[in-house]
Amino acid sequence: MQQIAAIGVVGISAIAAMPFRANADSLAHVGSVLFNSDLQAGPLYEVGSPQYKWLEADLAASTKPWKFLFFHHTMRTSSIHLYDNYDLNDELDTLQLQRTVGALAEKYGVSLALQAHDHVYERFNPVRGIYSITCGGGGAGLVAEEGAEVVFV
């Protein structure tokens, strides 16, 4: 039987709804930032906004070789939320995140973006050096292909 490895990110949906959290010294070589990407609450990370400035300052100050971002709404997806526009600004949420958060991630060498929102598991080849993984099974179980077994590691 084929096994599918899934990275469990406990509570990312609930935690990512909280604003401004950093844990840059949690691991010796990893800097991690968790931030609020809820577009329904408004343009929290537009260029010049308090959250954008906070995120940029935190990423700029990090000397860690690997930087991870954790957030709820997806920057890259092929699932149901691909065409969301929660803040009704005529720009798809995924593109808005890529333009703002994605640009900061690229500028400051983020290695990995972990997201939720879509209740699927997706991982993407790196785009401008950033790996994107969607692990949205926190509020619902992940469904495996027929004949496969989901294994949480």
Brief digest:
The chain has helices spanning 12-15, 50-61, 93-107, and strands spanning 2-6, 21-23, 30-34, 66-70, 112-115, 121-127, 130-135, 148-152. By secondary structure, it is of the alpha/beta class.
Mean pLDDT figure: 74
Numbering strands along the chain, what is their spatial order in the largest sheet? 2-3-4-5-7-6
Largest sheet composition:
6 strands, mixed
Distance between the termini: 17 Å
How many β strands by DSSP?
8
Q: How many helices?
A: 3
Strand content: 25-35%
Task: Describe the protein in words.
The chain has 153 residues and is of the alpha/beta class. It is built from three helices and eight strands, in the order βαββαβαββββ. The strands form two sheets. A six-stranded mixed β-sheet has the order 2-3-4-5-7-6. A two-stranded parallel sheet has the order 1-8. α2 runs parallel beside α3. The longest helix has 15 residues. The radius of gyration is 15 Å and the shape is globular. It starts with a strand and ends with a strand.
